[in-house]
Structure formats: structure tokens, C-alpha cells
Specification:
With about 80 residues, the chain is mainly alpha-helical. It has one domain (about 15-75). The protein has helices spanning about 15-45, 50-75. α1 (about 15-45) crosses α2. It is flat.
Length: about 80
């Protein structure tokens, strides 16, 4: 597109408070995920089955990676 065709289109301004709220929400979601994982590690370690948790995490990661690659290749 040329510079002349973009002159009539204005992007809405995003306020700093909206950006701050978004950052806080993302950080909160990350902290909740890490807290859940840490709780699982403590629980499985206490039971003596930490290898089960690591196998589960590895399997989920591998399935996600393979699925993402297949989806990328077919689209």
C-alpha cells in the first residue's frame, strides 16, 4: 500500500492503563500456572512418583509439538 492510501485510516489509541492491566493479567496467569506445576512436583515427589510426572509432562510436550507441526504442514 502507498502512503496516500493509509492517510484516511487511524488506529485507535491504546491507553497505558489498558496495557498495564494486560501485563498484570498475563503475569497472573503465568504465576498461577507455575504454582500449579510446583504443587504437582511437590506432591509427586512426596509420593515417590516424580518420574510419573516427568513422563506425563514429556508426553504432553511431545504431543503438542507433533500436533503443531502437523497443523502447520497441512495449512
Amino acid at each position: 500500500m502507498t502512503q496516500a492510501s493509509n492517510q484516511g485510516i487511524q488506529r485507535p489509541a491504546i491507553s497505558p492503563s489498558t496495557i498495564a492491566i494486560g501485563i498484570v493479567v498475563v503475569i497472573g496467569a503465568i504465576l498461577l500456572s507455575v504454582a500449579g506445576l510446583y504443587t504437582d512436583v511437590l506432591w509427586f515427589d512426596h509420593l515417590g512418583f516424580l518420574s510419573v510426572l516427568s513422563t506425563q509432562i514429556f508426553a504432553q510436550s511431545a504431543l503438542f509439538t507433533v500436533s503443531a507441526l502437523v497443523f502447520t504442514l497441512i495449512t
